[in-house]
Amino acid sequence: MNKLLTIVFNSYYSKKNLYRVLKNLKKYPIIIIENSLDIDLKRELEKKYKNVKVFIPKENLGLAKGYNLGIKKAKTSYVFLNNPDIEISNKSIDTLLLSAQKIIKFGILAPTYDNERIFKNYSNYNVPFNNGIPFLKKSKIYDVNWIDNNFLVNRKKIAGELFDENYFLYFETIDFCLNLKRKKNKLLVFKNIKFKHFGSKSTDSKYKNVVSLTRAWHYNWSKFYYYKKNYNYFYALKKIFPNLIQAIKKIIINIFKLNSFSIYLSVIEIYGIISAILCLKSFYRPHARN
């Protein structure tokens, strides 16, 4: 088993995805932060896969706290942070790890989505990276402004720059990248190292309503908090105002459509916005029921 890199998965009711992705990743030690608190799943996975260690926290930690816990639990120099809705080859991970050892001075290294037509996991600010390393001569590497999830970090280097645990969901990786960038760290994406991302399918589909409500509240709360933290309160108000207007419009439209869940979803969006504006903590946690 590789002793330089640990793969960390932040999971929430992701059993099917975990079994799919783990069967091909037996070369590396794997840590799973299981936010559904499913002890039976921990027992199943650790029995089936000798390279897997599942940690059950006392509560649903969300992404920021979950990633921090995974980084702290890892014993290797490098950590590859992921959600379970991906598919990546051992060869791609090998290349990322070897690149990390060659480049040395970096903040984040990341592969890119196999299909970028819908969205990308990095900003559009593409500056070619070339530091004369023969191994990377044919690699298409770009220094970007941010990378959203699925990336490799040097555990020791970021020990003092972990994720801001005020975030529960959304903007935690963008904030993390901004902190690294401000300290002159390079955020590098490899256009020739690909992985599949199944997009918003980490969690079992039977919990889709809970996921929708969680995202509706936290996207808006986190957006406001990100701009307030990194710029100022009034700039955050300016950035969140269009979201508030859009949510109100959706309520009016769905009243005429008699779509009660969509109305409730928009109310939750507004709830998240108001909570952020009032500087309340990120507290909203809808409960999944089996």
Q: How would you briefly describe this protein structure?
A:
This protein has 290 residues and is an alpha/beta fold. It contains 8 helices and 10 strands. It starts with a strand and ends in a 13-residue tail after the last helix.
Distance between the termini: 36 Å
What is the CATH third-level topology name of the largest domain?
Spore Coat Polysaccharide Biosynthesis Protein SpsA, Chain A
Structural class from helices and strands?
alpha/beta
Uncertain ranges: none
| Helix share bin | 40-55%
Average pLDDT figure = 90
Biggest sheet strand line-up: 3-2-1-4-9
Structural features, described:
The chain is an alpha/beta fold and 290 residues long. It has two domains: 5-197, Spore Coat Polysaccharide Biosynthesis Protein SpsA, Chain A (Alpha-Beta Complex); 205-277. 42% of the residues lie in helices and 17% in strands. It contains eight helices and ten strands. Strands 3-2-1-4-9 form a five-stranded mixed beta sheet. Strands 5, 6, 7, 8 and 10 form a five-stranded mixed beta sheet that branches. Helix 2 (39-48) links the parallel strand 2 and strand 3 (52-55). The model has no long low-confidence stretch (mean pLDDT 90).
List keywords for this structure.
alpha/beta; five-stranded mixed beta sheet; single chain; Spore Coat Polysaccharide Biosynthesis Protein SpsA, Chain A; 8 helices; globular; about 290 residues
Task: Provide the fold topology.
Blueprint: E1 5-11, H1 15-22, E2 30-34, H2 39-48, E3 52-55, H3 62-73, E4 78-82, E5 86-87, H4 90-103, E6 108-113, E7 127-128, E8 141-143, E9 151-154, H5 172-182, E10 187-197, H6 208-230, H7 233-257, H8 260-277
Parallel strand pairs: 1-2, 1-4, 2-3, 6-10
Antiparallel strand pairs: 4-9, 5-10, 7-8, 8-10
